[in-house]
Write a structure and sequence with these properties.
By secondary structure, the chain is an alpha/beta fold. The chain has 3 domains: 239 residues, Rossmann fold (3-Layer(aba) Sandwich), CATH 3.40.50.2000; 235 residues, Rossmann fold (3-Layer(aba) Sandwich), CATH 3.40.50.2000; 63 residues. The chain has 23 helices and 19 strands. A 9-stranded mixed β-sheet has the order 4-5-6-3-2-7-8-9-10, sandwiched between helices. Strand 5 and strand 6 form a beta hairpin. It is elongated, with a radius of gyration of 29 Å. This is Glycogen [starch] synthase. Pathway: Glycan biosynthesis; glycogen biosynthesis. One of its GO terms (molecular function) is alpha-1,4-glucan glucosyltransferase (UDP-glucose donor) activity. InterPro entries: Glycogen_synth (IPR008631).
Length: 676
Amino acid sequence: MVYAFSTDSLILLVHKFITQSLGGIYTVIQTKAKITVDEWGENLFMMGPYYEHNINTQVEKCEPSNPAIKKAMGALTENGCPVYFGRWLIEGSPYVILFDTKAAAWNVDRWKGDLWDTCGIGLPFHDIEANDSLIFGSMVAWFFKELTDQLGDSPNVLAHFHEWQAGAGLILCRSRKIPIASIFTTHATLLGRYLCAGNVDFYNNLDKIYHRYCLERAAAHCAHVFTTVSQITAVEATHMLHRKPDVVTPNGLNIRKFSAMHEFQNLHSTNKGRIQEFIRGHFYGHLDFNLQKTLFFFIAGRYEFSNKGADIFLESLSRLNYLLRVHKSDVTVVVFFIMPAKTNNYNIETLKGQAVRKQLWDTAHTVKEKFGTRLYEALLKGDLPDMNTILDRDDFTIMKRAIYATQRHSLPPVTTHNMLDDASDPILANIRRIGLFNARVDRVKVLFHPEFLSSASPLLPMDYEEFVRGCHLGVFPSYYEPWGYTPGECTVMGIPSVTTNLSGFGCFMEEHVSDPTAYGIYIVDRRFRSAEESCNQLTQFMFGFCQQSRRQRIIQRNRTERLSDLLDWRYLGRFYMHARSLALSRAFPEKFWMEPLAPPQGFRYPRPGSVPPSPSASVHSTPHHSDEEDGDEEELYDEDEEAKRDRQNIKAPFSLGPTPDQVPDHPTSPYIALLY
C-alpha cells in the first residue's frame, strides 16, 4: 500500500464549460464536484471563462481566502484582464475562478504570436472558438505564473485540463516551465468526432480543424499525465494523438441524485401511467391496442443521426414490427425519439389529441357523478336501482357525442411538432422508407418528439428523469460515443438499456459484468460485425425483450438498478486519484513517490445465481402476454440473496485501500492519493 503526501497542495480543474450546461463533459465535472471537494476541501478550485448570464444564477461571488490566489487574480485584473471568484452553486459548492475572455480580447494578436513562437501553431482569425480558447488559455497560464511565484516551493500546484479548448493553457505553462503538475483529459478526440459526423466534407474542411487538432495533440504530449474516459477512446487517442493514455478515468454519476431505494419500481409504474395518458390522447381513434401490454422504448440525445445510432435503430424497428406481426403478438411497442431539431410549433393534430382525451375524461367524470348520485339516492331509499333508468337519454347523448368526437380519418402523426425541414429530416425520411406510419396493423408505433422534455410542456408534461423511469427500455446503439451518459442514467434508475461496444459505457460494462444481458444491459457488437449483423442483433435483443413476462421485467429492473454502484463516483473517483498522484510524482519526484504499479483494476460482476431473464434461457420462442405468469417457467429468484451477493461483489475488489478516515495522520498535511 502506498501513500503520497503533500503540504496542502492545491488542485485546479481547468475547463471551458465550467458553469455552462453543455453536453456530457459538463455532467462529468458537475457530478464529480462533490467527491472532489470531499477529497481536497478548500484546496480545490475550478477555472473557466466568465459568462455573465450564467454567473448571475449559478455562482455566489465572494473574496478568495487564499492570499496567493487573491494576489494572482489581482495581477491579471490590474492589467486589464478581469478575473472573478465565487462558489459554484452545485452539490459540494466548489470555488470557481472565472476569466473574462471578452474583456481580455484586446491581447489576442499578441497571444497568437506567443503561441506561434512557442510551438508553431497558428490560429486563423475566422475560428472564433479557437481564438476564445487561446485567450482563455493565455489568461490561465498567466494566472499560474503569478500563483506559483506567490507560493514558491510550497504548496505544490496540480492543474487538470479538460479537452482541447483548455489545451493552450497547458502548452503555455509547460513551455514557460511553470512549476505545476499537469493532467490532460480528452473526453473524445477532435478528429474522431469530426470523422464520425455524417455528411462532412473532411478534406475540404481540414483548414477549419487542423489547428484545433494541433492544440489537442500538443496538450496531450505536454501533460505529465494523459487520461481519457474509456478504453475505446484510449484506442482512438493512441492512433489520433500518438500518445497512449496513462490512465483511463471512467465517467460516473452522483448516484444519490437518482437513488429511490425500493421505490424505483413504484416510480416506474407511476410515470408509466403518465406516459399512457399521453398515448391515449395521441392515438385517439386508433387506440385498438392494449396499453397494459404496451412497452415504451426510447432514444434520446443530440440529433446526430448516425453517431447516436438512430439509423440502425429505425431499421431494426422495421424488422421488429415484422417479427411481432408474423408471430401474431399482442404486445405493442411505442418508440419515442427525443432529439432536438428545428421546429416552428406543436403539431395541431397532436394538440387536438390531448384536447379530445381531456374532453372524454371530463365527460366520463360528469356521467360518473350523476350515476353515483342517483345510485346513492336509490340505496338511501332502500331500493335496488334500475340500471335501465339510472342514466337518462341526455347522458347517453353526451356519451355518444364524446364517442363521435374520437373518430379520426387520418393516422396518428409520427411527430409531435411541425418540422421546418420535414422533407429532408433524416428520422422522418427513414420512417417513410420503412413505412412505419402508426397504422392499425403495425405492432411498432413511432413518435418523434423533436425537443427536450419539460414538465411545462402542454403535450407530455414530464421531466427527462420522470420519462425515463416510466419507459421499459432505452435504446442507444451509438456508432461513436466516447462514454454515453444516457444508458448510464437508465441504469441508475433501474431501466434496462441497449448500448454498443463502440461506446465507453458498453466497453465498461463488458469489462466489469460477466453477463450484462442478465442485468438489463444489452450490448450490440458494432465493432467487429457488419452493419447488417449488428442490425439483426439489435432486432433480436428487442424481440427478446418483448417476449419477457411482466415478472421477468421486474426481476431484470431490480438487477439493473443494483449496477448503480458500478457507476458511483465514490468508486470511480479513485481512477482520478491515481492520475493525480501519478502527475505529482512525475512533476515533483523529490517530494512525491509511487510504486510502479498499474492503475486500479476493475472486476467482473458475476452472472446472477438464478436463471437470467433472457429469451435464450427463460422464455418461450414465441411471444406471450406480458402479464401472464406461467407456472412452468418460475425462476429460482431470491431478490434479497442476489442483492446481498452483488453488494459483496462490488465492494470487495475496491477495499484495496483505506477509506479517508483510516488514512494515518501526517504531521503537516492531508493525503493526496491512496490506491492499490
